[in-house]
Write a structure and sequence with these properties.
4 helices, 31% strand, four-stranded antiparallel β-sheet
Length: 201
């Protein structure tokens, strides 16, 4: 079961403290499930120069053959939200939660998503690196300035970068390389919103 597999990986992976609490999970998804998603995403490696988010409702018309997996994985994350955030020393919480999930297609350089600290409505953020084989990971900083760069959660296919956003602390950015798009699977536990694909009752 893909949901339990991913959850167990999250719960069994230690928190890294520098420069702020985060996890880097390897082999995040079962190999067969990951390969299925990777193959569906590879046609989008040359998708152009605009940031694209493909949500579960968009999968069929865009030939992303991963709807059932997206639903199972999302339901597991949402129903285990407290376990996931309680791994962290500090986290936000809301009385009712929802989950944003999508495949993100980041265009090649010169496009860059600027340094940011995460929206205040997000409590837990997860980014799984899908394709290509080599690209740029997630860059971590101490402030919102480039010169405060500390380290990168390096790109490795089927690895996942996770953190709980903290105001004024979890500064990060992402970008692709020069040759192709950067494709990831993203989940965000958030304050309840009817814009998200899964919601607590």
């Amino acid at each position: 079961m893909i949901g339990k597999y991913f959850l167990d990986k999250c719960l069994d992976t230690a928190i890294e403290k520098h420069p702020w609490p985060h996890q880097i999970i390897t082999e995040s998804l079962p190999t067969d499930s990951f390969d299925k998603l990777r193959k569906s995403c590879e046609p989008y490696l040359n998708a152009g120069n605009k940031l694209i988010h493909l949500h579960a409702k968009d999968f069929k018309e865009n030939n992303i053959n991963w709807y059932d997996e997206m639903m199972e994985l999302g339901e597991t994350i949402l129903s285990n939200a407290k376990k996931l955030v309680e791994l962290y020393p500090t986290y936000r919480w809301f009385p009712k939660l929802s989950l944003n999930g999508h495949v993100s297609i980041t265009p090649p350089l010169p496009y860059k998503f600027p340094i940011h600290q995460e929206g205040l409505d997000k409590i837990w953020s997860s980014v799984t690196y899908i394709t290509p084989e080599k690209n740029v990971g997630t860059k971590m900083y101490n402030t919102d300035r480039e010169e405060s760069f500390v380290k990168e959660a390096k790109w490795r296919q089927n690895s996942t970068f996770i953190f709980c956003g903290e105001q004024g602390k979890t500064w990060h950015s992402y970008e692709s390389g020069e040759e192709t798009c950067r494709i990831t699977l993203n989940f965000f536990l958030m304050k309840d919103s009817d814009k998200n694909y899964l919601r607590q009752p």
